[in-house]
Amino acid sequence: MSKRDEYVEKMKVQLDELNSQFNELEQKAKAGQQELSKKYSEQLAQLHDASQAAKAKMEEIAAAGEDKWEALLAEGEKVHKAFVHSLNYFKSQLK
């Protein structure tokens, strides 16, 4: 397995776990009070966008040639960290 394939697999596992947490939080938010629903809806939309951006970057890295995928790593890590940060912030708002 190439380094790129290993990285993409690792990123996929992490993204799947983050999306699982996102789905749990989404259910909690939907069960929350009506007045908070709008706030949660906006934050959930932002989380959804962050999730989609991370998935798109992972797919871009997976599709990149062996000679180009490493150049995408920094941006991929940045997108991933942004998703993690957004998810953690949203979790803190639900407590």
Describe this structure in words.
The protein is mostly helical and 95 residues long. It has one domain (3-94). 85% of the residues lie in helices and 0% in strands. The chain contains three helices and no strands. It has helices at 3-31, 34-63, 73-94. Helix 1 (3-31) packs parallel to helix 3 and helix 2 (34-63) runs antiparallel to helix 3 (73-94). The longest helix has 30 residues, at 34-63. The N and C termini lie far apart (42 Å). The model has no long low-confidence stretch (mean pLDDT 84).
Instruction: Give the number of DSSP strands.
Output: 0
What's the shape? Answer: elongated
Radius of gyration, CA atoms, in whole angstroms: 15 Å
Considering DSSP H and I runs of 4 or more, what fraction of the residues is helical?
Answer: over 70%
Count of runs of 4 or more consecutive helical residues? 3
The succession of helices and strands, N to C, reads HHH
Determine the N-to-C terminus distance. 42 Å
How do the strands and helices of this protein lay out in sequence?
Elements: H1 3-31, H2 34-63, H3 73-94
Helix pairs in contact: 1-2, 1-3, 2-3
Tags for this model:
mainly alpha, single chain, 95 residues
State the gist of this model:
With 95 residues, this protein is mostly helical. The chain has helices at residues 3-31, 34-63, 73-94.
